[in-house]
Amino acid sequence: MHLNIKIVAIGEIKNLTNEYIKRLGSFCKLEILQLPAIAFMRESDKQKTKEKEGAKILGYIKKNSDNSFFLLDEHGQEFNSPAFAKQLSSLQGCIVFIVAGTLGFSQEIKELALPKLSLSKMTLPHEMARLVLLEQIYRSVNIINGREYHY
Question: What CATH code would you report for 3-144?
Answer without folding.
Answer: 3.40.1280.10
